[in-house]
Each structure stands twice: as structure tokens, then as C-alpha cells.
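Morning run. Coffee first, then this:
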Amino acid sequence: VQLQASGGGLVQAGGSLRLSCAPSGRTFRGYGMGWFRQAPGKEREFVAAIEWRIGLTYYADSVKGRFTISRRTAEHAIYLQMNDLKPEDTAVYYCKDELPYPLRDYSDYTSGPWGQGTLVTVSS
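And here it is:
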């Protein structure tokens, strides 16, 4: 059973969206959780990660200052607040857990399996 992402949609450039992710039938596992995305015709890439216990965060340079990853431990959910969206942010966004210590750029962690993603489309 994988993680289910939701909250995507169509938004104009400069707009905002908030994505949510929760496991189905289980709780989050491991040290860290993160968001990844895959644009049409491109490889999946790392976006942001959060350490579950304390809440430390790490961001890809392309989203730093615009996106915020957070978690609610009581609700077993993580979120991605995306502000000042750009057309190049258009992608299917996925969440993933069991990311290993230490918190870092998880660009080498793009292999599956993956749960259901959510499509974010940013129009110019």
C-alpha cells in the first residue's frame, strides 16, 4: 500500500496550491518523507523532504523560498504549500516515505514503487 497524494489542479502563474499526502491503511514509515515530481517527458525529480520526528526540512534549489513542506504527526499527513507557482512547476507530484538519514537532496531516490500522484498544471 503506497502513499496517496492529493490537492493538485490548474492554477495561473503566481498562484498557490497546497498538496496533501497520507498513507492508506498504514502509518508513515522511516526517517523522512518527501515530495517528488515528474514533468511530461522528463525524469522524476526531488522537490522537498521533511524529517518526521523533529520536522527538519530540505528543498531542491528550484523551489527554495516558494514551497514549504510540513507535517502533522497526529494526522499522519504531510503537506506541500506551493506559492508563486511557475509554468515549469507543471508536473505530477508524488509523495514518498522511508527516506533514509541524513536529510538531503534525494535525487538518487527516484526509483519505485510509487503511489498515486496528483497533477499540478500552471498556466502562463
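The longest strand covers residues 91-99. Good start to the day.
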